[in-house]
Task: inverse folding
């Protein structure tokens, strides 16, 4: 099997890039855009998703996670993000914040839930990675009340056909707004018609963090 390499898998003790068959190298410059909260290089994310598609891998599971946080330590908010599993048995995360799309790679174990998780919904899916790639590529800049983590996450679920009919968390970051138009992203995706699975926090290599800053 071809040996693949990736930069930016920080904080994973004992991790070897050869353990990850789905992950191809991303640009060296993208590593400079990492911090402790994740990667912010959109080009690297798009390249990663393209690499998955080129190698025939699919997205097979998406976990929609919401956690509470406080703006300025005072104003209660809720942040939405995702942990996604590929058919190569690899996990990566996607979040949307004022810095843009934040993503990270976790190898073959999912991350821990963030502190103050209020719900997690898991969908079993069968989606072409390029559906998510196109959605991310056309994401508009973050804007409170109009295009925040809530509207962005709803748009992504719509894009892959995994829309939840009810949203249990009403105290949302940005307090609502219209989901990003996803009508052009749905080709090539399919979702099993199953009710979202509520899951508990599970042990992973490190914790996923999330807020809108």
Result:
């Amino acid at each position: 099997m071809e040996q693949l390499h990736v930069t930016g898998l920080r904080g994973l003790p004992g991790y070897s890039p050869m353990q990850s068959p789905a992950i191809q190298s991303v640009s060296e410059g993208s590593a400079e855009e990492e911090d402790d909260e994740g990667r912010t290089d959109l080009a690297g994310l798009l390249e990663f998703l393209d690499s998955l598609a080129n190698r025939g891998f699919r997205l097979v599971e998406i976990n929609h996670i919401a956690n509470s946080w406080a703006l300025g330590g005072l104003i209660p908010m809720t942040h939405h993000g995702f942990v996604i599993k590929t058919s190569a048995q690899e996990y990566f995360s996607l979040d949307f914040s004022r810095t843009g799309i934040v993503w990270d790679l976790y190898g073959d174990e999912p991350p821990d839930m963030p502190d103050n998780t209020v719900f997690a919904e898991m969908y079993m899916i069968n989606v072409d990675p390029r559906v998510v790639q196109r959605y991310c590529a056309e994401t508009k800049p973050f804007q409170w009340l109009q295009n925040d983590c809530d509207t962005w996450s709803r748009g992504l679920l719509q894009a892959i056909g995994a829309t939840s009919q009810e949203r249990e968390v009403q105290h949302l970051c940005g307090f609502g707004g219209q989901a990003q138009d996803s009508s052009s992203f749905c080709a090539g995706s399919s979702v099993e018609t199953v009710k979202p699975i509520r899951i508990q926090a599970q042990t992973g290599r490190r914790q996923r963090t999330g807020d809108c800053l």
About this structure: The first strand starts at residue 34 and ends at 35. The longest helix spans residues 42-54.
